[in-house]
Amino acid sequence: MGTSPFEITGKSAIVTGGVMGIGFGVVRRLVEAGANVLIADLNGDLAAQRASELGGPGKTASVAIDVSAVDAGEMLVSACLENFSSVDILVNNAGIYPMSPMLGQDRGVWQRVIDINLTGLAFVSKAVAQQMVSRGGGGKIVNIASIDALHPSMVGLAAYDSSKGGVLMFTRSLALELGPHGINVNAIAPGGINTEGSAAPLQGSGMTPEEMEAMVEQFAAAIPLRRMGEPDDIAKVALFLASPGSDYMTGELVVVDGGRLLS
Question: Could you tell me if 52 and 27 are in contact, meaning their C-beta atoms sit under 8 angstroms apart?
Fold first, then answer.
């Protein structure tokens, strides 16, 4: 039967924001599939703990990093090469989503969202892509966008929505540039996902716990599959996009939202 189209044994990956939620779900799937994974996160202690917890065919390492730092991309490439000797896969997952109506938006908070969600993602991608081009042999870049790149979910996420819309267009632009080098660049648009931090924006919105619960229930009720997503729902698609199974896809946005955008 030959090699599986989803075979990534021995490949080396970087996952940003990899200590919880979607990021950790992606790390687990990549390790399970045999990849070596560098877990990159602002919380270095938890990243190291996650790396030590994971057992599987692949190996793990960790690094503490703020993806918005000017040299974050170069630091991540260096750490991955030091631990695994190659960089074959990048999953840009790190992101923040503070909630604030635009009329009350703080300029510093807006800039922090853009710096992490879009600018950091772009320049980490640049550094990884440079390494991939220099080495030859192609590679995979997977960006975690959002359904908010296509349609706003609610009032209060103007900065987040703008950053994720930018991720979508950056994905397409970089795919066009890197295609001749055999590097696939694709994005995933998650819908509502149950994660440790999913309630954080609502907690800062002034809503009562009851109001927050009602909003989540209302959102879930509009999902045709009648449930919120789990991190593994996104991780399985990320694994596909990181594998040879997606070799003839680039510049694409894969929506994984239980059908939410249909309603």
Answer: no
**Which 3-state string (H, E, C) describes the chain?**
CCCCCCCCCCCEEEEECCCCHHHHHHHHHHHHCCCEEEEEECCHHHHHHHHHHCCCCCCEEEEECCCCCCCHHHHHHHHHHHHHCCCCEEEECCCCCCCCCHHHCCHHHHHHHHHHHHHHHHHHHHHHHHHHHHHCCCEEEEEECCHHHCCCCCCCCHHHHHHHHHHHHHHHHHHHHHHHHCEEEEEEEECCECCCCCCHHHHCCCCCHHHHHHHHHHHHHCCCCCCCECHHHHHHHHHHHHCHHHCCCCCCEEEECCCHHHC
Does 148 score more than 90 pLDDT?
yes
97 in catalytic set: no
CATH number of 12-195+230-255: 3.40.50.720
Q: How does pLDDT run across 210-260, given as a tens digit for each residue?
A: 777 787 788 889 999 999 999 999 999 999 999 999 999 999 999 999 999
> What predicted TM-score, i.e. pTM, was given to this entire model?
0.94
27: pLDDT strictly greater than 70: yes
Nearest CA among 113, 94, 104 for reference residue 205 = 104
- Name the pLDDT band for 204 (thresholds 50, 70, 90): low
Select from 78, 88, 96 the least CA-distant residue to 30. Answer: 88
The catalytically annotated residue of 97, 160, 170, 240 is: 160
